[in-house]
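Lab manual, section 2.4: Encoding a predicted structure.

Procedure: take the sequence of the chain (274 residues), apply the prediction step described in section 2.3, and record the output as structure tokens. A sample record is shown.
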Amino acid sequence: MRKSLAAALFSATLTIFIQSEASALSIIALSPQSAENLAAVGARDEITAVDSATRDIGVRPDLPAVSFAGQASLEEIAARKPDLIVADRTFFPELSESLQRLTRFGIRIHLADLKSLDDLPDELITLGKLTGHEKEAEKQAAEFRKRLSDVRARYRKDKKIGTVFLVGSRPLIAATGGSYLSGMLEDCGARNILSDLPGSYSAVNAEEIIRRRPLLVLDTSPDQDAKFRNMLSENGSRYLFLGWDPDIIQITVKSADGLSRLCRKIAEASADGR
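Recorded output:
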């Protein structure tokens, strides 16, 4: 009796172990945004390699980096034999296209294409299905929708504050109409006055910004030219240094909190400027 019970327990344990081993995924996340969202749906422990920027923000800093700023060795990635690669078409379009060559090795490729905060819930649900974490993904998606709705209800206004959002200093790089940052400005009761420029981001000269007379200039660059800042002040524009906030610059489950911080800063700056 004892022997048969022990044998049954051993068999059950072995079955669970084998099933666990079989279901364990090996995922390579090739952007900080991808790693954040995979971790959010419950797949953090399945990530086996990342890009260098992901280690910097603290998502699995213990893991090897297999790419840097969109540059990666496909041979090195293939040698790791991942089951799934998650990358961002928006941030690294060239890398995203080259990754398709790895499908011949049986590697699944998922390319996120997030153009606004409204795209994130569906992306989370997709990641949940790909990794077997559907329930957690649906929970995270619902919570994000609720937080985003709350922020928008608080800060969206009919009268918009004319704003420029800078993401680079030498040369000046600004978010334009195709950038999700323009949508975030709208959520905060602001208006991107460079939204008519093509693409998502564009080089722009200081004189053009001055000519358009923004009420507010947001900047992520810590080394902005002092002369340009003086020009803004003389033009009646208020300059606000944001720093590099990943919850604003990326689209992740933390972006609703990033949006709330951005909206609060815009509201405070516009109130001070009146």
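Check your result against the sample. Confidence is low (pLDDT under 50) at residues 10-22.
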